[in-house]
């Protein structure tokens, strides 16, 4: 698995830092997102996180969904619409780890809301990179079946999930522990871009391997965008690792391992995607796309969002 950076790579952190951040954990114990990426001056704990966001919205009146790359509008993807149709997508590929519980993922419609339940067990081979194997969780997430563009963007959680894969695995942001980039710690992630934490298994980015079974094979990633899951604002998340580049640039490498949001700056037009790591395709459909570069999945939420459920 390779994490690309827009500035020269610096030496990997020592074992002491790696161990401390693993213990610090990637997630809070509840399902709310009290801490946002914009809040870079607060302290996180291993238990309930009580940081206050400095600002949950962007100051720019133009939303990310209003912006497209004029030189390279995304090829249209097959966007699934309708509550029942989207709910039917949430399933697993079946057991992949004889020593773990069988993976479970399903969804039902409750009015215009899709209710997703999962036990958080991966349906691909688990490789231990942190202490202890994944245990079954009781996860419930809700997303709107018909997302709407918000007046302003909303920051992704600094700690906790921002979305969920079709197989029911929580998707986290680019931060590990209290705000350092997950890519600053060598060996903390499986090649698939995921790992286990104190409160369960989760994914930080899309990784591929020629030897390890992941969500998608390298050939699938190269062939075009693949539907990974959904963000909590209801917009789909597709793989874009071989198709698109992020417009975030590493401008202060000294902060990469301690405050990755402060270390990066969004530079409009420098890549293919907008500030939220999304793009409007040729058919006018907005979606987020994963990238090899920061922020890996989402840079912000473009839609109206209420983060609840799960952790």
From TrEMBL:
Start-end of Low complexity biased regions: 29-43
Domain YHYH: 140-303
Signal peptide start and end residues: 1-24
InterPro entries reported in the protein's UniProt record: YHYH_dom
Top-level taxon of the source organism: Bacteria
Keyword Signal listed: yes
The keyword Signal belongs to this UniProt entry's keyword annotation: yes
Segments of skewed composition (Acidic residues): 44-59
Region (Disordered) location: 29-70
Keyword terms: Signal
Name used for this protein in its record: YHYH protein
Species: Serinibacter salmoneus
